[in-house]
């Protein structure tokens, strides 16, 4: 059988880092797989960080992938790809909220709570009831942005402490500190609501 007829490797089985190298070489199928893998997780993260502003989150996801293409030559193999991509998304979100014409609201409207689909970890127990889940979501919105983003990246996006450190450009010790303080505040807010 001629070599040109032999089936190639399943691109879906390739790790992100090799797919990123393929994008650097102009291979469209590699980009398509990365978009397929990361569109939903990035949208979920950006929705939570933007107080469920779907239009903003969708715009930022699109901008993240545009920036990926524009800066793909800055990606250096074998650096883990996922934190590199989340860093782009995080910086776009941060820049959006830094602009003078952008105002953040401190709370999540009740009618948007129903849109929140994922289960956040409760600090004290593994079982989360729907009522408790809504309490966690409401309490999470009351945390300072730095603690909220760290908790979301760790417990919802399931990123390692090192990956979070890279995304936020802070030491691992600072990540641990923000997680600890954030979970303590989350617990205190929830206990205050129960009393």
Could you outline the blueprint of secondary structure elements for this entry?
Elements lengths: L15 H9 L3 H22 L4 H18 L9 H18 L11 H4 L16 H12 L3 H12 L4 H8 L3 H23 L1
Helix pairs in contact: 1-2, 2-3, 3-4, 4-8, 6-9, 7-9, 8-9
Give the structure's gist in a few sentences:
With 195 residues, the protein is mainly alpha-helical.
CATH third-level topology of the largest domain: Rna Polymerase Sigma Factor, Chain: A
CATH superfamily descriptor of the largest domain: RNA polymerase sigma factor, region 2, helix turn helix motif
Order of helices and strands: HHHHHHHHH
What would you say the CATH architecture of the largest domain is? Orthogonal Bundle
Helix content percent band: 55-70%
Q: In total, how many beta strands?
A: 0
Distance between the termini: 74 Å
Q: Which CATH C-level class of the largest domain is it? A: Mainly Alpha
Number of domains: 2
Structural class: mainly alpha
Helix count? Answer: 9
Note the beta-strand portion: under 5%
Overall 3D shape? elongated
Tag the structure with descriptive keywords.
0% strand, 2 domains, Rna Polymerase Sigma Factor, Chain: A, elongated, mainly alpha
Tell me about this structure.
The chain has nine helices and no strands. The chain has helices spanning 16-24, 28-49, 54-71, 81-98, 110-113, 130-141, 145-156, 161-168, 172-194. Helix 8 (161-168) packs across helix 9 (172-194). The chain is elongated. The model is unreliable at 1-6 and 102-128 (pLDDT under 50).
